[in-house]
Design goal:
It is built from three helices and seven strands, in the order ββββββαβαα. The chain has about 170 residues and is of the alpha+beta class. The relative contact order is 0.12. The chain has a five-stranded mixed sheet with strand order 2-1-5-6-7, with helices on one face. Strands 3-4 form a two-stranded antiparallel sheet. It has a single domain (about 10-130), classed as 2-Layer Sandwich (Double Stranded RNA Binding Domain).
């Protein structure tokens, strides 16, 4: 990590058989702050670069700008057991069979912007997974609502009563 800037770190990118160290800059060295209670070391995140799909031009066919981010939720030492259980439950459909979360960004033609985008999405997905949901407060129907329900039942019963044939004319 041969960078001299304050707050600099580098990330290892694997791209079709090659490996590159790219310096990145954040507010705090080697840490991604998800919530005030959770700070993920960047060493837990694995970035991979590959070629973006879609319609191309000269640049698209030669550069690896699509970024794939992998994070092992099940094996992360940064999570408390409660946080891990909560994330495994809430992010369950987004995790692979080994408990790893995969996010992809290919919206920009810049590798750096895609990496920033996918890192920000990781932060928001994990923060939403850890958010405490509000308890539902049980409520009772109002007196007017009860009366309206009973009146509707009476009206419906009267309609059905009028459909019946009178008592002496039955076959």
């Amino acid at each position: 990590m041969g960078s001299t800037a304050v707050g600099a770190y580098s990330v290892r990118l694997q791209s079709e058989g090659t490996e590159t160290q790219i310096p990145l800059y954040m507010a705090d060295d080697n840490v991604l702050e998800v919530t005030p209670e959770l700070r993920l070391p960047l060493s837990e995140l694995e970035y991979r670069a590959s070629r973006s799909g879609g319609p191309g031009g000269q640049h698209v066919n030669t550069s690896s700008t699509r970024i794939e981010l992998w994070w092992d939720v099940a094996g992360s030492p940064s999570l408390s057991p409660e946080q891990r259980a909560q994330l495994l439950e809430r992010l369950g459909p987004r995790l692979d069979s080994s408990g790893r979360l995969r996010l992809v960004s290919s919206s920009s033609r810049s590798q750096l912007r895609n990496r920033d985008d996918v890192t920000e999405r990781l932060r928001s997905v994990v923060a939403a997974g850890l958010a405490v949901r509000k308890k539902r407060k049980a409520t009772k129907p109002s007196r007017a609502a009860k009366q309206a329900r009973l009146e509707a039942k009476r009206r419906r019963a009267a309609i059905k009563q009028r459909r019946r044939s009178p008592p002496g004319l039955e076959d």
